[in-house]
Design brief:
With 311 residues, the chain is mostly helical. The chain is built from 10 helices and 3 strands. The protein has one domain: Rhopdopsin 7-helix transmembrane proteins (Up-down Bundle), CATH 1.20.1070. A 3-stranded mixed sheet has the order 2-1-3. Helix 1 runs antiparallel to helix 2. The longest helix is centred in the middle third of the chain and has 34 residues. The C terminus is likely disordered.
Amino acid sequence: MNNQTDVTEFIFLGFSNHPNLQGLFFLIFLVIYLTAVLGNTLIITATRVSPALQTPMYYFLSNLSFLDICYISTTIPVMLVNLFREKKTISYEGCLSQIFFLVTCASTECILLAAMAYDRYVAICHPLQYSVFMSMKVCVCLVTGTWLCGMVNSLTHTVLAATLTLCGPNQISHFFCDIPLFLKLSCSDTSVNESVIHVASAIIGLTPCLFIAMSYILIISAILRIPSAQSRSKAFSTCASHLTVVVVFYGMANFNYDRRSVGYSLDTDILVSVLFCVMTPMLNPIIYSLRNKEVKGALSKLFGGSALWEY
């Protein structure tokens, strides 16, 4: 790699506009990080110890929680350390590593949310065949496939990024490394990288989104044909948490990357990226614990019947 670049480290400019607020930012992001890790860990624990949650839906949920822990851990610890450093840097190798894990987590989450939508589709539209279509073997294969797709996609982008020549400057207008930011620092041709990004966005981003949309069109159509209002309400409730997470994830992802393509101020881009990369992993366990009776019940038992989870 050293023969491809004269740059050995990068300087993050994120939060540089507010030098007097570094301590406050550290406390805010530390609380967010600990909340996200604790919340997702509780979800994983609840799905493991509660017999009522030993179903494919909660198997996917526990994997989503593990993925969110990895996702937020890719960026926040480095940022927390840099907030107390006068020179906020990351090595060249560290930047590529951060890109690899960040893209892996984002890509995997896109596909995992589609797998979760398929689970809800089978449960509501083909309930009699659910145990066959969503056996444990199928679930394991789906989760394994999502991680493999995410890692292959990420490895492709990272290897292509490593071939670029970087002549300087070495300043990144953010608090983490990402592919679009890395490409801006290159003094060599990035057309191949950009083409791969467009193809990957269609395959990894758009295709799962369309699959989820089609699944929910079929799901809603099936629910509306249920004669009992109580049964319709119960069917909708099993999808509400997942649909909320999908809307939050794709909404913030689109806002994040669409805004970058049209120009932005440093503070605005930092805020949008925080919503996408930091707040989403924190919100997912909250959404599931607030909107899902089974998860609330499992968490309540986990804490000895604490009334906190009853609201």
